[in-house]
Automatic annotation (TrEMBL):
Stretch forming the signal peptide: none
Entry membrane topology: Multi-pass membrane protein
InterPro entries xref list: ABC_transp_permease (IPR001851)
GO cellular component: plasma membrane
Protein name in UniProt: ABC transporter permease
Amino acid sequence: MTGPTDTPDPDDTPTPPADHEAPSKPGAASKPGTASEAGAASKSGAASESGAASEQDAASEQDAASGQDAASESGATSKSGAASEAGAASGSGASGAGAASGRVEVPRPAEPDPSEGGAPVKQGPEPVPSWKAILRGLGPTGLGLKIGAPVLALLISLGITMILLRLTGADPVSAVQSMVDYGTQQHSIVDIINRATRYYLSAVAVAIGFRMALLNIGVDGQYRLAAFLAAALGGAISLPAPFGQILVIVAAVLVGGLWAAIAGVLKVTRGVSEVLSTIMLNAIATGVIAYLLNDKRLAEPRPNSNDVATATIPHSGRVGPLNGFLSAIGINLPGAVYGLLPLAIVVGIVFWVVINYTRFGFDLKISGLSPSAAQASGVSAKRMIVVTMVASGAVAGLIGIPGLLGESYDYSLNFPAGLGFTGITVALLGRNHPAGIALASLLFAFLDQTSDILQEVEVPKEIVGVMQGVVVLTVVIVYELVRRWEIRLQQRSVAAELATGHDLAREAAGSTS
Protein backbone atom coordinates (compact mmCIF):
# COMPACT_ATOMS: atom_id res chain seq x y z
CA MET A 1 0.00 0.00 0.00
CA THR A 2 1.17 3.56 -0.62
CA GLY A 3 0.98 6.46 1.70
CA PRO A 4 -0.65 9.74 0.93
CA THR A 5 2.63 11.22 -0.30
CA ASP A 6 4.22 8.14 -1.84
CA THR A 7 4.43 7.41 -5.55
CA PRO A 8 2.06 4.58 -6.53
CA ASP A 9 3.72 1.25 -7.25
CA PRO A 10 2.93 -0.04 -10.77
CA ASP A 11 2.40 -3.51 -9.33
CA ASP A 12 -0.40 -2.20 -7.09
CA THR A 13 -2.32 -0.54 -9.94
CA PRO A 14 -5.63 -2.38 -10.41
CA THR A 15 -6.37 -3.86 -13.80
CA PRO A 16 -9.39 -2.08 -15.42
CA PRO A 17 -12.14 -4.16 -16.99
CA ALA A 18 -11.88 -4.94 -20.69
CA ASP A 19 -14.94 -2.79 -21.54
CA HIS A 20 -13.59 0.34 -19.80
CA GLU A 21 -9.93 0.34 -20.64
CA ALA A 22 -8.02 3.60 -20.66
CA PRO A 23 -6.86 4.87 -24.08
CA SER A 24 -3.15 4.79 -24.74
CA LYS A 25 -0.68 5.50 -27.52
CA PRO A 26 1.64 3.06 -29.25
CA GLY A 27 4.49 2.37 -26.97
CA ALA A 28 2.45 3.23 -23.94
CA ALA A 29 2.42 -0.35 -22.62
CA SER A 30 4.02 -1.34 -19.34
CA LYS A 31 7.60 -2.42 -18.88
CA PRO A 32 8.47 -6.03 -19.74
CA GLY A 33 7.33 -8.27 -16.97
CA THR A 34 4.74 -5.86 -15.64
CA ALA A 35 1.64 -7.95 -16.08
CA SER A 36 -0.87 -5.49 -14.68
CA GLU A 37 -0.02 -2.70 -17.16
CA ALA A 38 -0.05 -5.16 -20.04
CA GLY A 39 -3.59 -6.05 -19.05
CA ALA A 40 -4.53 -2.39 -18.94
CA ALA A 41 -3.25 -1.78 -22.46
CA SER A 42 -4.93 -4.79 -24.05
CA LYS A 43 -8.67 -5.05 -24.60
CA SER A 44 -8.88 -8.69 -23.58
CA GLY A 45 -7.27 -8.12 -20.18
CA ALA A 46 -5.86 -11.67 -20.24
CA ALA A 47 -2.26 -10.78 -19.22
CA SER A 48 -1.13 -11.97 -15.80
CA GLU A 49 1.69 -11.28 -13.37
CA SER A 50 3.66 -14.44 -14.34
CA GLY A 51 6.10 -12.48 -16.59
CA ALA A 52 6.39 -15.38 -19.09
CA ALA A 53 8.00 -14.51 -22.43
CA SER A 54 5.05 -15.71 -24.45
CA GLU A 55 2.71 -13.53 -22.49
CA GLN A 56 5.06 -10.58 -22.89
CA ASP A 57 5.07 -11.09 -26.67
CA ALA A 58 1.28 -11.29 -26.69
CA ALA A 59 1.14 -8.17 -24.60
CA SER A 60 3.42 -6.36 -27.05
CA GLU A 61 1.25 -7.33 -30.01
CA GLN A 62 -1.85 -6.40 -28.09
CA ASP A 63 -0.21 -3.09 -27.20
CA ALA A 64 0.19 -2.23 -30.87
CA ALA A 65 -3.46 -2.94 -31.64
CA SER A 66 -4.75 -1.21 -28.56
CA GLY A 67 -2.47 1.76 -29.22
CA GLN A 68 -4.02 2.28 -32.65
CA ASP A 69 -7.54 2.03 -31.26
CA ALA A 70 -6.70 4.26 -28.37
CA ALA A 71 -5.18 6.88 -30.66
CA SER A 72 -8.41 7.28 -32.56
CA GLU A 73 -10.44 7.22 -29.36
CA SER A 74 -8.25 9.81 -27.72
CA GLY A 75 -8.47 12.12 -30.76
CA ALA A 76 -12.26 11.82 -30.93
CA THR A 77 -13.25 11.76 -27.27
CA SER A 78 -10.53 13.37 -25.17
CA LYS A 79 -8.34 16.36 -25.76
CA SER A 80 -6.24 17.52 -22.81
CA GLY A 81 -6.86 14.67 -20.38
CA ALA A 82 -6.24 11.81 -22.80
CA ALA A 83 -3.21 13.59 -24.20
CA SER A 84 -1.63 13.91 -20.76
CA GLU A 85 -2.36 10.28 -19.91
CA ALA A 86 -0.96 9.09 -23.23
CA GLY A 87 2.11 11.27 -22.73
CA ALA A 88 2.67 9.91 -19.26
CA ALA A 89 2.21 6.34 -20.37
CA SER A 90 4.56 6.76 -23.29
CA GLY A 91 7.15 8.37 -21.07
CA SER A 92 7.09 5.46 -18.65
CA GLY A 93 6.77 2.68 -21.20
CA ALA A 94 8.96 3.94 -24.03
CA SER A 95 11.84 1.81 -22.76
CA GLY A 96 9.57 -1.21 -22.76
CA ALA A 97 7.74 -2.20 -25.95
CA GLY A 98 9.50 0.56 -27.93
CA ALA A 99 12.91 -0.65 -26.86
CA ALA A 100 11.97 -4.24 -27.57
CA SER A 101 11.21 -3.40 -31.20
CA GLY A 102 14.42 -1.43 -31.62
CA ARG A 103 12.76 1.91 -32.31
CA VAL A 104 11.22 4.65 -30.24
CA GLU A 105 7.75 5.86 -31.27
CA VAL A 106 6.97 9.50 -30.58
CA PRO A 107 3.30 10.00 -29.66
CA ARG A 108 1.22 12.34 -31.83
CA PRO A 109 0.15 15.50 -29.99
CA ALA A 110 -3.55 15.89 -29.41
CA GLU A 111 -5.65 18.50 -31.23
CA PRO A 112 -5.78 21.85 -29.38
CA ASP A 113 -9.09 22.57 -27.76
CA PRO A 114 -10.29 26.22 -27.98
CA SER A 115 -12.19 25.76 -24.72
CA GLU A 116 -8.92 24.79 -22.98
CA GLY A 117 -6.98 27.74 -24.32
CA GLY A 118 -5.80 26.09 -27.54
CA ALA A 119 -5.67 27.55 -31.03
CA PRO A 120 -9.11 28.71 -32.27
CA VAL A 121 -10.84 26.69 -34.95
CA LYS A 122 -11.15 28.58 -38.26
CA GLN A 123 -14.67 29.75 -38.85
CA GLY A 124 -16.45 31.15 -41.88
CA PRO A 125 -15.99 34.63 -43.30
CA GLU A 126 -15.99 37.46 -40.83
CA PRO A 127 -19.14 39.57 -40.59
CA VAL A 128 -19.20 42.57 -42.88
CA PRO A 129 -18.80 45.90 -41.05
CA SER A 130 -21.85 48.10 -40.94
CA TRP A 131 -20.39 50.77 -43.21
CA LYS A 132 -19.52 48.15 -45.82
CA ALA A 133 -23.02 46.71 -45.56
CA ILE A 134 -24.43 50.17 -46.23
CA LEU A 135 -22.21 50.60 -49.26
CA ARG A 136 -23.22 47.15 -50.47
CA GLY A 137 -26.88 48.16 -50.15
CA LEU A 138 -26.13 51.20 -52.29
CA GLY A 139 -24.20 49.08 -54.75
CA PRO A 140 -25.14 47.45 -58.05
CA THR A 141 -27.58 45.00 -56.47
CA GLY A 142 -29.24 47.35 -53.98
CA LEU A 143 -30.66 50.85 -53.95
CA GLY A 144 -28.05 51.97 -56.45
CA LEU A 145 -29.51 49.60 -59.02
CA LYS A 146 -33.05 50.85 -58.51
CA ILE A 147 -32.00 54.49 -58.80
CA GLY A 148 -29.06 54.24 -61.17
CA ALA A 149 -30.78 52.28 -63.92
CA PRO A 150 -33.58 54.80 -64.65
CA VAL A 151 -31.21 57.74 -64.23
CA LEU A 152 -28.81 56.16 -66.72
CA ALA A 153 -31.68 55.54 -69.12
CA LEU A 154 -32.79 59.17 -68.88
CA LEU A 155 -29.28 60.49 -69.44
CA ILE A 156 -28.80 58.29 -72.49
CA SER A 157 -32.16 59.31 -73.94
CA LEU A 158 -31.39 62.98 -73.27
CA GLY A 159 -28.06 62.65 -75.04
CA ILE A 160 -29.67 60.96 -78.05
CA THR A 161 -32.38 63.65 -78.17
CA MET A 162 -29.83 66.45 -78.11
CA ILE A 163 -27.96 64.78 -80.96
CA LEU A 164 -31.21 64.64 -82.95
CA LEU A 165 -31.87 68.31 -82.20
CA ARG A 166 -28.42 69.20 -83.44
CA LEU A 167 -29.01 67.23 -86.63
CA THR A 168 -32.16 69.28 -87.30
CA GLY A 169 -30.14 72.48 -87.05
CA ALA A 170 -31.59 73.60 -83.70
CA ASP A 171 -29.66 74.53 -80.60
CA PRO A 172 -30.28 71.70 -78.09
CA VAL A 173 -29.25 73.80 -75.10
CA SER A 174 -31.73 76.57 -75.97
CA ALA A 175 -34.49 74.01 -76.53
CA VAL A 176 -33.96 72.37 -73.16
CA GLN A 177 -33.71 75.76 -71.44
CA SER A 178 -37.01 76.88 -73.00
CA MET A 179 -38.72 73.70 -71.79
CA VAL A 180 -37.44 74.21 -68.24
CA ASP A 181 -38.46 77.88 -68.14
CA TYR A 182 -41.96 77.16 -69.42
CA GLY A 183 -42.46 74.06 -67.29
CA THR A 184 -41.65 75.83 -64.03
CA GLN A 185 -44.30 78.52 -64.44
CA GLN A 186 -47.25 78.25 -62.05
CA HIS A 187 -49.94 77.56 -64.62
CA SER A 188 -47.71 74.89 -66.17
CA ILE A 189 -47.19 73.30 -62.77
CA VAL A 190 -50.96 72.91 -62.37
CA ASP A 191 -51.28 71.26 -65.77
CA ILE A 192 -48.32 68.99 -65.03
CA ILE A 193 -49.88 67.85 -61.75
CA ASN A 194 -53.21 67.12 -63.43
CA ARG A 195 -51.56 65.21 -66.26
CA ALA A 196 -49.39 63.28 -63.83
CA THR A 197 -52.47 62.23 -61.85
CA ARG A 198 -53.92 60.43 -64.86
CA TYR A 199 -50.55 59.01 -65.88
CA TYR A 200 -50.02 57.70 -62.38
CA LEU A 201 -53.31 55.81 -62.25
CA SER A 202 -52.65 54.38 -65.69
CA ALA A 203 -49.17 53.20 -64.71
CA VAL A 204 -50.41 51.58 -61.49
CA ALA A 205 -53.03 49.68 -63.48
CA VAL A 206 -50.30 48.39 -65.80
CA ALA A 207 -47.94 47.63 -62.89
CA ILE A 208 -50.51 45.36 -61.25
CA GLY A 209 -50.41 43.15 -64.32
CA PHE A 210 -46.63 43.40 -64.58
CA ARG A 211 -46.31 42.02 -61.05
CA MET A 212 -47.78 38.76 -62.31
CA ALA A 213 -46.05 38.85 -65.69
CA LEU A 214 -49.29 39.94 -67.38
CA LEU A 215 -49.21 42.70 -70.00
CA ASN A 216 -52.51 44.52 -69.85
CA ILE A 217 -52.50 46.37 -73.16
CA GLY A 218 -56.22 46.98 -72.77
CA VAL A 219 -55.91 49.74 -70.15
CA ASP A 220 -56.70 52.32 -72.81
CA GLY A 221 -60.00 50.72 -73.80
CA GLN A 222 -60.90 49.92 -70.20
CA TYR A 223 -60.61 53.48 -68.92
CA ARG A 224 -62.37 55.06 -71.91
CA LEU A 225 -65.33 52.68 -71.77
CA ALA A 226 -65.53 53.07 -67.97
CA ALA A 227 -65.44 56.87 -68.18
CA PHE A 228 -68.07 56.93 -70.90
CA LEU A 229 -70.59 54.72 -69.10
CA ALA A 230 -69.90 56.40 -65.74
CA ALA A 231 -70.44 59.83 -67.30
CA ALA A 232 -73.69 58.69 -68.90
CA LEU A 233 -74.89 57.29 -65.57
CA GLY A 234 -73.82 60.37 -63.61
CA GLY A 235 -75.55 62.70 -66.05
CA ALA A 236 -78.77 60.68 -66.03
CA ILE A 237 -79.10 60.28 -62.24
CA SER A 238 -78.92 63.24 -59.89
CA LEU A 239 -77.97 62.34 -56.32
CA PRO A 240 -76.93 64.54 -53.42
CA ALA A 241 -73.27 64.75 -52.49
CA PRO A 242 -71.33 62.62 -51.81
CA PHE A 243 -73.53 59.87 -53.28
CA GLY A 244 -73.32 61.33 -56.77
CA GLN A 245 -69.51 61.17 -56.76
CA ILE A 246 -69.52 57.69 -55.24
CA LEU A 247 -71.95 56.47 -57.91
CA VAL A 248 -69.71 57.64 -60.74
CA ILE A 249 -66.52 56.26 -59.15
CA VAL A 250 -68.03 52.86 -58.35
CA ALA A 251 -69.54 52.57 -61.82
CA ALA A 252 -66.18 53.30 -63.43
CA VAL A 253 -64.39 50.74 -61.24
CA LEU A 254 -66.95 48.04 -62.03
CA VAL A 255 -66.93 48.66 -65.78
CA GLY A 256 -63.14 48.66 -65.97
CA GLY A 257 -62.81 45.51 -63.87
CA LEU A 258 -65.46 43.57 -65.76
CA TRP A 259 -64.05 44.57 -69.15
CA ALA A 260 -60.57 43.39 -68.12
CA ALA A 261 -62.00 40.18 -66.67
CA ILE A 262 -62.91 39.07 -70.19
CA ALA A 263 -59.23 38.84 -71.09
CA GLY A 264 -58.47 36.94 -67.88
CA VAL A 265 -61.22 34.39 -68.46
CA LEU A 266 -60.12 33.86 -72.06
CA LYS A 267 -56.56 33.22 -70.91
CA VAL A 268 -57.39 30.61 -68.26
CA THR A 269 -60.14 28.83 -70.20
CA ARG A 270 -58.94 28.97 -73.80
CA GLY A 271 -55.29 29.89 -73.46
CA VAL A 272 -55.69 33.17 -75.34
CA SER A 273 -52.79 35.55 -74.76
CA GLU A 274 -53.78 38.60 -72.75
CA VAL A 275 -51.85 40.77 -75.19
CA LEU A 276 -53.95 39.65 -78.14
CA SER A 277 -57.26 39.68 -76.28
CA THR A 278 -56.77 43.12 -74.71
CA ILE A 279 -55.79 44.64 -78.06
CA MET A 280 -58.99 43.26 -79.57
CA LEU A 281 -60.98 44.50 -76.58
CA ASN A 282 -59.56 47.99 -77.15
CA ALA A 283 -60.98 47.95 -80.66
CA ILE A 284 -64.31 46.65 -79.41
CA ALA A 285 -64.47 49.35 -76.72
CA THR A 286 -63.79 52.01 -79.33
CA GLY A 287 -66.62 50.67 -81.47
CA VAL A 288 -69.05 50.50 -78.54
CA ILE A 289 -68.29 54.09 -77.55
CA ALA A 290 -68.65 55.31 -81.13
CA TYR A 291 -72.01 53.58 -81.41
CA LEU A 292 -73.40 54.86 -78.10
CA LEU A 293 -71.93 58.37 -78.30
CA ASN A 294 -74.73 59.51 -80.55
CA ASP A 295 -77.45 62.10 -80.10
CA LYS A 296 -80.04 59.39 -80.61
CA ARG A 297 -78.62 57.15 -77.87
CA LEU A 298 -76.53 58.18 -74.85
CA ALA A 299 -75.27 61.56 -76.04
CA GLU A 300 -76.59 64.93 -77.09
CA PRO A 301 -75.16 67.57 -79.43
CA ARG A 302 -73.36 70.52 -77.91
CA PRO A 303 -74.72 73.92 -78.88
CA ASN A 304 -72.75 75.85 -81.48
CA SER A 305 -70.48 72.87 -82.06
CA ASN A 306 -70.19 69.70 -84.07
CA ASP A 307 -69.21 67.81 -80.95
CA VAL A 308 -71.51 65.44 -79.07
CA ALA A 309 -71.28 64.58 -75.40
CA THR A 310 -73.11 62.80 -72.64
CA ALA A 311 -75.42 64.69 -70.33
CA THR A 312 -73.59 67.07 -68.02
CA ILE A 313 -73.03 65.79 -64.50
CA PRO A 314 -74.87 68.02 -61.99
CA HIS A 315 -73.02 70.04 -59.36
CA SER A 316 -73.88 67.53 -56.64
CA GLY A 317 -71.89 64.91 -58.50
CA ARG A 318 -68.78 66.98 -59.15
CA VAL A 319 -65.53 67.13 -57.17
CA GLY A 320 -64.16 70.58 -56.40
CA PRO A 321 -60.52 71.56 -56.90
CA LEU A 322 -57.85 71.01 -54.29
CA ASN A 323 -56.73 74.64 -54.27
CA GLY A 324 -58.45 75.45 -50.99
CA PHE A 325 -56.44 72.83 -49.13
CA LEU A 326 -53.24 73.85 -50.90
CA SER A 327 -53.80 77.50 -49.97
CA ALA A 328 -54.27 76.49 -46.34
CA ILE A 329 -50.79 74.98 -46.30
CA GLY A 330 -49.22 77.92 -48.09
CA ILE A 331 -49.27 76.71 -51.71
CA ASN A 332 -51.07 79.14 -53.99
CA LEU A 333 -51.59 78.05 -57.59
CA PRO A 334 -53.53 79.95 -60.26
CA GLY A 335 -55.27 76.96 -61.84
CA ALA A 336 -57.55 74.23 -60.52
CA VAL A 337 -55.80 71.12 -59.24
CA TYR A 338 -57.86 67.95 -59.54
CA GLY A 339 -59.73 67.25 -56.32
CA LEU A 340 -59.22 63.51 -56.83
CA LEU A 341 -55.44 63.81 -56.61
CA PRO A 342 -55.60 62.26 -53.09
CA LEU A 343 -57.47 59.31 -54.62
CA ALA A 344 -54.49 58.59 -56.87
CA ILE A 345 -52.15 58.80 -53.88
CA VAL A 346 -54.33 56.38 -51.91
CA VAL A 347 -54.38 53.96 -54.83
CA GLY A 348 -50.58 53.99 -54.93
CA ILE A 349 -50.28 53.39 -51.18
CA VAL A 350 -52.80 50.54 -51.26
CA PHE A 351 -50.98 49.00 -54.21
CA TRP A 352 -47.66 49.11 -52.34
CA VAL A 353 -49.09 47.67 -49.12
CA VAL A 354 -51.03 44.89 -50.85
CA ILE A 355 -48.09 43.80 -53.00
CA ASN A 356 -45.51 43.79 -50.20
CA TYR A 357 -47.39 43.02 -46.99
CA THR A 358 -50.35 40.78 -47.80
CA ARG A 359 -50.84 37.15 -48.69
CA PHE A 360 -52.53 38.19 -51.93
CA GLY A 361 -49.46 40.15 -52.97
CA PHE A 362 -47.21 37.19 -52.21
CA ASP A 363 -49.46 34.83 -54.15
CA LEU A 364 -49.55 37.29 -57.04
CA LYS A 365 -45.77 37.54 -57.27
CA ILE A 366 -45.12 33.82 -56.89
CA SER A 367 -47.78 33.03 -59.49
CA GLY A 368 -46.08 35.37 -61.92
CA LEU A 369 -42.60 33.95 -61.25
CA SER A 370 -43.57 30.27 -61.38
CA PRO A 371 -47.17 29.13 -61.89
CA SER A 372 -46.15 25.51 -61.25
CA ALA A 373 -44.57 26.41 -57.92
CA ALA A 374 -47.66 28.41 -56.99
CA GLN A 375 -49.86 25.46 -57.89
CA ALA A 376 -47.71 23.14 -55.77
CA SER A 377 -48.03 25.48 -52.78
CA GLY A 378 -51.81 25.52 -53.01
CA VAL A 379 -52.26 28.75 -54.98
CA SER A 380 -54.56 28.59 -58.00
CA ALA A 381 -52.64 30.29 -60.79
CA LYS A 382 -55.77 30.51 -62.94
CA ARG A 383 -57.72 32.24 -60.22
CA MET A 384 -54.84 34.67 -59.65
CA ILE A 385 -54.79 35.54 -63.36
CA VAL A 386 -58.47 36.46 -63.36
CA VAL A 387 -58.24 38.38 -60.07
CA THR A 388 -55.16 40.28 -61.25
CA MET A 389 -56.81 41.30 -64.50
CA VAL A 390 -59.91 42.44 -62.63
CA ALA A 391 -57.81 44.51 -60.20
CA SER A 392 -55.83 46.04 -63.06
CA GLY A 393 -59.01 46.91 -64.94
CA ALA A 394 -60.62 48.36 -61.81
CA VAL A 395 -57.73 50.79 -61.35
CA ALA A 396 -57.80 51.53 -65.08
CA GLY A 397 -61.43 52.56 -64.72
CA LEU A 398 -60.32 55.40 -62.44
CA ILE A 399 -57.98 57.01 -64.98
CA GLY A 400 -60.57 59.29 -66.57
CA ILE A 401 -62.52 60.08 -63.39
CA PRO A 402 -60.37 62.99 -62.06
CA GLY A 403 -60.86 64.91 -65.31
CA LEU A 404 -64.49 63.84 -65.65
CA LEU A 405 -65.55 65.00 -62.17
CA GLY A 406 -63.10 67.88 -61.88
CA GLU A 407 -62.92 69.51 -65.30
CA SER A 408 -65.10 68.36 -68.23
CA TYR A 409 -68.16 66.96 -66.34
CA ASP A 410 -69.11 64.93 -69.44
CA TYR A 411 -67.68 62.54 -71.99
CA SER A 412 -67.24 63.96 -75.49
CA LEU A 413 -65.27 63.27 -78.64
CA ASN A 414 -62.44 65.36 -77.17
CA PHE A 415 -62.03 63.16 -74.10
CA PRO A 416 -58.31 62.34 -73.58
CA ALA A 417 -57.25 59.10 -75.26
CA GLY A 418 -54.03 57.11 -75.34
CA LEU A 419 -53.37 57.34 -71.61
CA GLY A 420 -53.17 53.56 -71.29
CA PHE A 421 -50.15 53.31 -73.59
CA THR A 422 -48.45 56.15 -71.75
CA GLY A 423 -49.00 54.19 -68.54
CA ILE A 424 -47.00 51.26 -69.93
CA THR A 425 -44.01 53.54 -70.48
CA VAL A 426 -44.38 55.18 -67.09
CA ALA A 427 -44.63 51.83 -65.32
CA LEU A 428 -41.48 50.58 -67.05
CA LEU A 429 -39.57 53.73 -66.18
CA GLY A 430 -40.77 53.61 -62.57
CA ARG A 431 -39.88 49.90 -62.21
CA ASN A 432 -43.44 49.14 -61.06
CA HIS A 433 -42.82 50.89 -57.74
CA PRO A 434 -45.29 53.56 -56.58
CA ALA A 435 -42.56 56.12 -55.83
CA GLY A 436 -40.77 55.49 -59.12
CA ILE A 437 -44.07 55.65 -61.00
CA ALA A 438 -44.81 59.04 -59.41
CA LEU A 439 -41.50 60.49 -60.59
CA ALA A 440 -41.90 59.01 -64.06
CA SER A 441 -45.44 60.42 -64.27
CA LEU A 442 -44.19 63.91 -63.46
CA LEU A 443 -41.44 63.58 -66.07
CA PHE A 444 -43.79 62.56 -68.86
CA ALA A 445 -46.30 65.20 -67.83
CA PHE A 446 -43.52 67.78 -67.99
CA LEU A 447 -42.51 66.65 -71.49
CA ASP A 448 -46.09 66.77 -72.74
CA GLN A 449 -46.75 70.16 -71.19
CA THR A 450 -43.62 71.80 -72.58
CA SER A 451 -43.82 70.36 -76.08
CA ASP A 452 -45.72 73.38 -77.43
CA ILE A 453 -43.06 75.87 -76.37
CA LEU A 454 -40.48 74.22 -78.62
CA GLN A 455 -42.05 75.84 -81.66
CA GLU A 456 -40.89 79.21 -80.37
CA VAL A 457 -37.27 78.12 -80.77
CA GLU A 458 -37.98 76.61 -84.20
CA VAL A 459 -38.01 73.04 -82.95
CA PRO A 460 -40.89 70.79 -84.02
CA LYS A 461 -43.04 69.69 -81.10
CA GLU A 462 -42.93 66.14 -82.40
CA ILE A 463 -39.41 65.90 -81.04
CA VAL A 464 -41.00 65.30 -77.63
CA GLY A 465 -42.64 62.15 -78.98
CA VAL A 466 -39.25 61.07 -80.28
CA MET A 467 -37.77 61.74 -76.86
CA GLN A 468 -40.44 59.65 -75.15
CA GLY A 469 -39.90 56.82 -77.60
CA VAL A 470 -36.16 56.96 -77.02
CA VAL A 471 -36.80 56.82 -73.28
CA VAL A 472 -38.86 53.66 -73.70
CA LEU A 473 -36.24 51.91 -75.83
CA THR A 474 -33.42 53.03 -73.58
CA VAL A 475 -35.23 51.88 -70.46
CA VAL A 476 -35.85 48.43 -71.92
CA ILE A 477 -32.24 48.04 -73.06
CA VAL A 478 -30.67 49.37 -69.86
CA TYR A 479 -32.89 47.29 -67.60
CA GLU A 480 -32.07 44.15 -69.56
CA LEU A 481 -28.34 44.84 -69.32
CA VAL A 482 -28.65 45.58 -65.61
CA ARG A 483 -30.66 42.40 -65.09
CA ARG A 484 -27.96 40.31 -66.72
CA TRP A 485 -25.29 42.09 -64.70
CA GLU A 486 -27.21 41.43 -61.49
CA ILE A 487 -27.52 37.73 -62.35
CA ARG A 488 -23.78 37.55 -63.03
CA LEU A 489 -23.00 39.18 -59.67
CA GLN A 490 -25.32 36.78 -57.88
CA GLN A 491 -23.64 33.82 -59.55
CA ARG A 492 -20.23 35.05 -58.45
CA SER A 493 -21.47 35.56 -54.91
CA VAL A 494 -22.93 32.05 -54.75
CA ALA A 495 -19.73 30.56 -56.18
CA ALA A 496 -17.64 32.36 -53.55
CA GLU A 497 -19.89 31.13 -50.74
CA LEU A 498 -19.73 27.56 -52.04
CA ALA A 499 -15.94 27.73 -52.27
CA THR A 500 -15.74 28.99 -48.68
CA GLY A 501 -18.01 26.17 -47.53
CA HIS A 502 -15.87 23.55 -49.29
CA ASP A 503 -12.70 24.94 -47.67
CA LEU A 504 -14.27 24.83 -44.22
CA ALA A 505 -15.51 21.28 -44.79
CA ARG A 506 -12.05 20.18 -45.99
CA GLU A 507 -10.37 21.71 -42.94
CA ALA A 508 -12.91 20.13 -40.62
CA ALA A 509 -12.34 16.73 -42.22
CA GLY A 510 -8.57 17.13 -41.86
CA SER A 511 -8.82 18.08 -38.20
CA THR A 512 -10.82 14.96 -37.34
CA SER A 513 -8.60 12.53 -39.29
